[in-house]
Amino acid sequence: MRATLPRLALRLALVVILVAANLWLALWLRDFAAEMAAQGRMDLLGATLAGLLLLYAVVLAIPFVPGAEIGLALLMAHGATAAPFVWGATALGLILAYAAGRALAAPRTCRTIDRMGFDRAAAALGRLRETDPDTRLRRLEDSVPRWARGWVLRRRYLLLALLINLPGNSLIGGGGGILIAAGLSRLFRSAPVLLTLVLATAPVPLLLMILGPGILP
C-alpha cells in the first residue's frame, strides 16, 4: 500500500496538471478571439484562422471546457465569413469527443489503463464493453425517474442536442464531456450522432450567415 500511494499521488497530480493546462488553453483561446473582435482584427491570414479553428476543435473535445463561449468569440472576431468554418470546427470537436468515448471501452484501451495502475477503471470499462446494448438500456431506464423514462430513452438524440446547447453546460462536463459519456455508453449509433451534432451546432452560425453580425452581443 505504501508503495502505491506515491504513484497514486503522482497520477492524480498529473491529471490535475493536464486539466488545468487544458482549461488555461481554452480560456486563452477565448480571450484571444475576443480581443481580436474588440480590435476589429478580422483580416487574419487563412492559415492563422485555420490553425485557430483546429485548436478550437481539439479544445472543445476536452471535458469541462466552455466551448460555446470560445465559438462565440471566434464568430465575433471573424463575422459571417467564418461562420461555416466555426460551425464545422464545432461539430468536428464534438465528433472527436464522441469517438474518444467509443475508444475508451476498446480492449486495447482497457489494457493500457490497467497497465497504468487504474485497474478498477479498466475493469469497469471492460464490464461496460461486455454488456449488450439492451441490458445497458434497461439499466439506464432503471436509473431514470419513471415519469421521464419514455421521453429520455426514446428521444435520447434530441436530449443530446439540448444538452449540447444548454447554457452553462460546462458545469456538467461541457460538450466534450457529454459526448465522451455518450460514446462510452454505446447507446448512441454513430450516424445519428453525426447528424445530431451537425444540426445541433447549426443555429447560431446559420443565423449569423442569414441575418448578419447584428445578432451577436
Automatic annotation (TrEMBL):
Recorded superkingdom: Bacteria
Record's keyword annotation contains Membrane: yes
Residues that span the membrane, as ranges: 12-32, 44-65, 85-105, 157-181, 193-216
Name of the molecule in the record: TVP38/TMEM64 family membrane protein
Keyword annotations of the record: Membrane, Transmembrane, Transmembrane helix
